[in-house]
Amino acid sequence: MNRKLLAAMLALVLILSAVTAAFATSVTDNSTFVKESDSDDYHRDPPSQGKEDDRDEHIETMTMYVVTDNGKGLNVRSEPYVTNYNIIGVAPYGSRIDVLRFLDNGWAAINWNYYGEAYVQSRFLQWYMPYNPPVTPTPTPYAPTPSPYDPAYSDTIAGINAEFRTMRTVTPFTISVRPVRSSGWVNMRWAPGKDMEVIKIYYNNDRLTVISEGANWYQVEDPNTGSVGYMMKTYTVRIY
Amino acid sequence: MKKLISLLLCLALLCCCAMSFAEAASGQFTATVRDRFRLTGPLPEGYQYSIVSQDDLTTRASVTSTDPAAPVMTLIISYNESYGDVKLLNDLPDDQLNQIKAGFSEMNEVTFDLRETSHGTKLLIVRETGADLDFLDFYTIYLGHEIELRLAPGEGASDPTLTEEQIQKCITFLSDLDFSPIG
């Protein structure tokens, strides 16, 4: 009797483990994508993310300025990735930075004082010295701040025509997409007006080629798909 | 014989339990962000997800339905140095929240709403409407990361307007997302 019970329990345990294993496999198979392992690998070996292997084509050292969303300083890091342990300094808002090159992964290599090569998030660098830290808008009632580069008539046919008239072909150069929020996006539209139909949306750090330049808009081409459209200049930064 | 039958019955019941669990797990969203935190939650019915891209700064996931007319959700999680010391959107003072709202100025006609998820996380809901578009954007901050979910009508949708039911589905998905720090 005891033997039978023991055998039955053993069989139960075996079946249960088989069911559990099958369940685990089914969960993995059903998840469309689980990238934990990749992520771990990434963090185990971060220096390869851009220091030597993944670097973009080289450009000359250039002067840019720090412009953060909230007027605070920008962390300068010893490696192009985020940890709590690699901050080697803070570049104040508006400070001048010597940029060595842009990396593919949203970072820029800079020349940092006596330290030498260091890294900052490239979305906080711009070509022109900012006049002032960002002005805090009046809290209530809320109204979107009208942009100075965007005349009131820009969405009318006359405004779009005016923008078209300023368009000039240029020697193609590369821009990086810089939405206002790092998690945001920028629209590529079929004509240079905010009411015009959106062809595609682009995210932070996406690269596009400029083929024409107007007063407020670029005509851009997606090098990956060949799509051509218009993007507001203010949400991009020229990198090559 | 009776014992064998009861044993088999137990096994069958156990299998049923395991299968129902497996079914539930297949509708789960999971994204691990920079070994800092994990997002998990049940997907809306009929939806599946895929991580479109992931690097040190940004994770982008697409949550889509098998029905081409159903709205598409795009989830973007991006680390922002400016908010490196901000744990939650709830911690931001009003002036900084207004600054974030002002950042939506590229859009046409926008309306804002502020809600709290079932976990107490503040969500900024931005709705943009226009002649030929209608989409919703949900924004929050967690551990220095800007998290944005964009709900847009599906490619196969005959009407470009989002219905209340679709919007509610998205809000439920976000509300049920559990943000859990790692380590």
Secondary structure topology:
The complex is a heterodimer of chains A (240) and B (183).
Chain A: H1 2-30, H2 36-44, E1 62-66, E2 74-77, E3 87-91, E4 96-102, E5 107-112, E6 116-121, E7 125-126, H3 157-166, E8 168-177, E9 185-189, E10 198-203, E11 207-213, E12 217-221, E13 228-232, E14 236-238
Chain B: H1 2-26, E1 28-33, E2 37-42, E3 47-54, E4 58-65, E5 72-79, H2 94-102, E6 109-116, E7 122-129, E8 134-142, E9 145-152, H3 164-175, E10 178-181
Antiparallel strand pairs in B: 1-2, 2-10, 3-4, 4-5, 5-9, 6-7, 7-8, 8-9
Description:
The complex is a heterodimer of chains A (240) and B (183). Chain A is α+β, with helices and mostly antiparallel strands. Chain A has two domains: 46-126, SH3 Domains (SH3 type barrels, Roll); 152-238, SH3 Domains (SH3 type barrels, Roll), CATH 2.30.30. Chain A has helices at residues 2-30, 36-44, 157-166, and strands at residues 62-66, 74-77, 87-91, 96-102, 107-112, 116-121, 125-126, 168-177, 185-189, 198-203, 207-213, 217-221, 228-232, 236-238. Chain A has a five-stranded antiparallel beta sheet, with no helix packed on it. Chain A has a five-stranded antiparallel beta sheet with strand order 13-12-11-8-14, covered by helices on one side. In chain A, a hairpin with a 3-residue loop joins strand 5 (107-112) and strand 6 (116-121). Residues 24-59 and 138-152 of chain A have low confidence and may be disordered. With 183 residues, chain B is an alpha+beta fold. Chain B has a single domain, classed as Mog1/PsbP, alpha/beta/alpha sandwich (Protein Transport Mog1p, Chain A, 3-Layer(aba) Sandwich), CATH 3.40.1000. Chain B has three helices and ten strands, in the order αβββββαββββαβ. The longest helix of chain B has 25 residues, at 2-26. The termini of chain B are far apart. Classes of the chains: A alpha+beta (240), B alpha+beta (183). The interface between A and B is large, with 68 and 60 residues.
Describe this protein with a few key phrases.
heterodimer, A: 240 residues, alpha+beta, SH3 type barrels, 2 domains, 5-stranded antiparallel sheet, 3 helices, flat, B: 183 residues, Protein Transport Mog1p, Chain A, 3-stranded antiparallel sheet, 10 strands
